[in-house]
Amino acid sequence: MSEAAFGRRPLTVSGMEELGAYRLLRVRDPDGPEPQPGQFAMIAAVERWGGGEDERPFLPRAFSIARHEGGESNFLLEDVGPGSRRLCELQPGEELWSLGPLGRGFRSPQDGRRAILVGGGVGIAPLAILQDSLAGSSTVLLGFRDRARAPGAALLSGASVATDDGSSGHHGLVTDLLEAELHDDPHAVVYACGPAGMLEGVRAICEREGTPAQLALEAGMACGFGACFGCVVPTRRGSYLRVCLDGPVVDAAELEHVDPHAGAPA
Fold it and tell me: Does residue 4 fall inside a structural domain?
């Protein structure tokens, strides 16, 4: 796991790109620690980060690091509420606070297994930096709600796409594509991030096929480093893990099921 200074630092926005309904926030981070694929940062706008008449501050938001190269970090955003809306409004030259990289990331494939990357919605973000890090080729399967969100697939290379409404790519769930892949060759390792329902589908399919899977969970966080216990999810052993510290990436075999609050927005 990468080591980060225990403290937030200001970063300057270098760009904001549109990917359909999503935004790719780019920030200059030349002196930041090198993140592992699957790690995240707690970010907040420096200015106008609050709500209500008294502008009461929002809590920082946890976002997977989608890419890190050339002294720049990228985050994939979707406007789903006041905090994410403010981040989507950031312009080049403005600043945000960042604490990270945090958490445990993905581990490389072992035993000659091929890598299958499965993402859903804004949850595709950590799969981009993972694909960048893999030595060999990978199979990429991405699911979106509709055509407006499908352009997010451009974040990764060579993706097969599924949409819930059939407006782009396969009409159905991305787990349909995964089942077909594993039917042909189950000697793989699956890396997944997305809505809780998708992650549960991935977990169940991989358990049935005997294929290991690493799931990047998401949960509401107040701190990002294990102090508040606000992001706990149950394990198969009857204990709990903290998504921010023991994850966000966990082995699917550790879970009896994926908790409904442990996934990315649909």
Answer: no
